[in-house]
Design brief:
- The complex is a heterodimer.
- Chain A is an alpha+beta fold.
- In chain A, 17% of the residues lie in helices and 34% in strands.
- In chain A, the strands form two sheets. Chain A has a five-stranded mixed sheet, with no helix packed on it.
- The longest helix of chain A is centred in the N-terminal third of the chain and has 29 residues.
- Chain B is mainly β.
- Chain B has a single domain, classed as Immunoglobulin-like (Sandwich), CATH 2.60.40.
- Chain B is 15% helix and 49% strand.
- Chain B contains two helices and 13 strands; from the N terminus they run αβββββββββββαββ.
- The model of chain B has no long low-confidence stretch (mean pLDDT 87).
- Classes of the chains: A alpha+beta, B mainly beta.
- The interface between A and B is medium-sized, with 19 and 14 residues.
Amino acid sequence: MRVLPLRPILFALAAFAAVLIYLIWWVSYAGIHYIPRYSLRPPGASGEVQGTSVRLLSMIRSDQLAPVEGGQPGIPEPGAAWIVAELEAVRHDPTKEFLCGTELIGPEQRLWSTASVRVTRSTPSCPLDLSVGQPVRFESIFMVPARYVDQLSGIALRDDSTAARTPVIRPSF
Amino acid sequence: MLGALAAITLVAVSAVGLRVSDPDEKKFEVINGVIGKPVKVNDGEVTVTQVKVGTILKQYGEIQDSTDGMFVAVSVTGAAVGPKRLELNAARLLSGDVRYEGYQLSAGVNSDPGFQTSVDGLFEVDPAQIDDLTLEMGSNEILHGYQQRVRIKLGVTRANAEEWRAVAEGVIEPATMTTRAIP
């Protein structure tokens, strides 16, 4: 009776297991990093991102953006509307910097980035060098098709440096 | 140690073998279309509505350039009809084995969800090589999987190429980019 070569079989099994572990790791990594995952916060609650607590104070629709110095208002593209989100940020980790990565989430996870507006606003769009513990208000402005205005979920606080779920904050009303 | 070296060698040989045996295989799916009809690609639709030709380029009310060849402006509308952003930021013209890249950076079209963007993609071509002129659009990605690319024939054929060359003498004025919500 022939004896099976144990060492080559064990080596092949070890190689197969190593490949399997690699595939499982890669599929898990890709699932976490490339498929957006969100954590919907309760209305009025803050979200944590980059060592900063961010709260959505209000989110209103507007067909015009008023400039702070007067003059021509900002008009959205045909069939679209402005969504003006007023936010409050409190930095509590001096080693991290809040980068204002806000996105508006609509139905079926439609995402809109902040719009480039050609008017000067009274509220800053992104506060830099936040002092620790000091609340600062800022606004994010989005342009969305008017038909989605009533189907918005909230503001996603995006941070590409972490695999954690992206917090989605909502106004308290 | 010997096993690891053998494994690395086998992987390298396999990679080289795959590459050598498959050098010209398309790494993308081609979706063909015709001018005037929307073509579904990725998460949106793209439509070519018009083709303009000329030899003198006028933009922003001023003559910007002229060519001994031929400028071709392709009016394209990209509509992000699905939940994702439509990104067709790479555009070129094909005529047989000849490829013409965009004359300006903004030859492609991108749209946020629910929006459609129209742009005149501008190309400079050799008038002697415009048979079966086709617009190809895809996305520029450093790392990508199996892409979709749309190819839309612009109506320039071997039979009517001479007519296109004849009407190219003159000013061409590409339209500026416009965006609107999808109706």
